[in-house]
Amino acid sequence: MLLISGLLLTSCNPDLTPASEDIVEPLAGKRKRIEAKIKAEETDYKRSRTDTDGDHSVSMAEEAAANQANELTEVNRVTLHDIELPDEVMLQILNELSVKDILQASQVCRYWHVLSEDPALWKALRLRINGDYPASDASKEQAKKHLVRIHVNTLSDPNNIAHLVNKYNLNDQHPFSKYKSLLFNLYNCEIYIPEEEGDISIKKIDMIDIIDEYVAQGNEEAIIWKINGIADGRCVYEHNPESTIAFIESLVEQGNEEAIKRKISGLIYGSHSCYGYKADHKAAVILIDSLVEQGSQQAIGRKIWALLEGNYGYKKDIKAAVLLNNNLVLQGNEEAIKRKMEGLIEGKYGYQADLKAAGDFIVSLALQGNEEAIKQKIWGLTDGDYGYEKNAEAAVALNESLVDKGNVRAIRRKIGGLAYDNWGYERDPEAAIAFLESLIEQGNEEAIRLKIEGLTHGNYGYEQNRKAAIAFIESLVKQDNEVAIRRKIKGLVKGNNLIYKRDDTQLKNWIEEQASEGKRWAYYLKAQGLKYGVLGFKKDRDAAIQYILKYGIPY
């Protein structure tokens, strides 16, 4: 090891050049590029440190080890001075190290730092650390993020979890975000059974642990459950006004929209809102105005409504409401555009009903590609509304032009039109099925979802056939289709989707079988099952942590 260390450290000398012409030109060229990068960084290079709350930080002991390694270079300089390792060999050696060791090694010298940034190194390392991100995204930062997510999955202290998740933005592009959301929606307070009623799906204390950990991880559904729980004394919580305010305020500081909405309600309605606040309309107006300036959609909608009705502490001022909305329309604000369209059509939001003006507004927006305007134009051509002459062929032609571009809304309109005779299409169930099947062959998730619903309930041109629905789902599960996997999980947990019956044993066995085949989604679900005692698994946190660390599973 000492010899290898010495060989590696000699490569930190940027002045070294290839010892012979036997080294091929591409390798020499790569070395020159690295040396050029080193020289360019020489004036502003600073030793970088990685901070992940103890996981990858460089301690004084580690710095001492680096100094010791430098001394080793000095001692061996006479014997190793003329030895130089090719970059490919250096990268292979770095690839044998852990991420933490690579990060430390990158601080030994500028040359190692440049080598440690090589994309090929992190692509190879991604496989070794079970990185749940595409090879095209492999990088030092992605690897670090993955390792921090794994660490978070072993923690139980909500404060530590929240600190790391927020500090490193771990929810951004989370590889299992859809499964996280599914699990909480499956195992929320709706299935909590009080102990005295017998069979307990999840005990009270376990339910609180799940909610608190998911809140710390930034799960919106869990945040809403907890706010309502401590505010109303629902779910597994006791009513606590002081805790409600403290929790809401902590979330407001993070810009959480749900918390902001509840604080505004509290300041407006006081004790009638159950959120613990005293009524304070002036404070409500100040908060709403500050949020409007930040572009909060909920605050904008609330202020417009308040100006129209003269409430929430605002004086009634219809002109001001319309002016505010029109200014937002000019900025391309989608919610404001919807309000103006509805206002001109139905006489809402301070606007007078004016179908001609509505038609002109829709036309101008449709020309700009606005989705809502295009929808209204198609509807206008279908029924002869908003100043349009009835023209089913034009409606279909416009929608088909969007279908060809893969527009999801247009695809839904075509399927609905062929199945139920609307949006200008004539009813043709066989054509609806043929269109759906063609989309399914392309892997279209919306089409997959609609076919499952069609076979389950007899919709979209399909005849009700639950056996066929199960066969379709199972065929997609074998292809690792997320829509089908989530549908099967939901069915086996709740047994209320008319296809699967609730069966925890079957669910657990299936997940373990899929994990044994190397399916990462199954690894994730098994870890969650062991951690929380869900999905048919018995709760065993110690076993969960061992499993998480062994297979590198993020929270």
Helix-strand makeup class: mainly alpha
The secondary-structure element order is HHHHHHHHHHHHHHHHHHHHHHHHHHHHH
Task: Tell the overall outline.
Answer: globular
- Work out the strand percent: under 5%
Radius of gyration: 30 Å
Largest sheet: none
3D structure, described in words:
The chain has helices spanning 2-10, 25-41, 60-80, 87-95, 99-105, 110-115, 119-128, 140-153, 158-167, 177-186, 204-216, 220-232, 241-253, 257-269, 281-293, 297-309, 318-330, 334-346, 355-367, 371-383, 392-403, 408-420, 429-441, 445-457, 466-477, 482-494, 504-516, 520-532, 541-551. It is mostly helical and 555 residues long. Among the domains are: 2-146, no CATH class; 503-555. Helix 14 runs antiparallel to helix 15 (281-293) and helix 22 packs antiparallel against helix 23. It starts with a helix and ends with a helix.
Sum this structure up briefly.
The protein has 555 residues and is an all-alpha fold.
Keywords:
29 helices, 555 residues, single chain, globular, mainly alpha
Secondary-structure topology with pairs:
Elements: H1 2-10, H2 25-41, H3 60-80, H4 87-95, H5 99-105, H6 110-115, H7 119-128, H8 140-153, H9 158-167, H10 177-186, H11 204-216, H12 220-232, H13 241-253, H14 257-269, H15 281-293, H16 297-309, H17 318-330, H18 334-346, H19 355-367, H20 371-383, H21 392-403, H22 408-420, H23 429-441, H24 445-457, H25 466-477, H26 482-494, H27 504-516, H28 520-532, H29 541-551
Helix pairs in contact: 1-3, 4-7, 8-9, 9-11, 11-12, 13-14, 14-15, 15-16, 16-17, 17-18, 18-19, 19-20, 20-21, 21-22, 22-23, 23-24, 24-25, 25-26, 27-28, 28-29
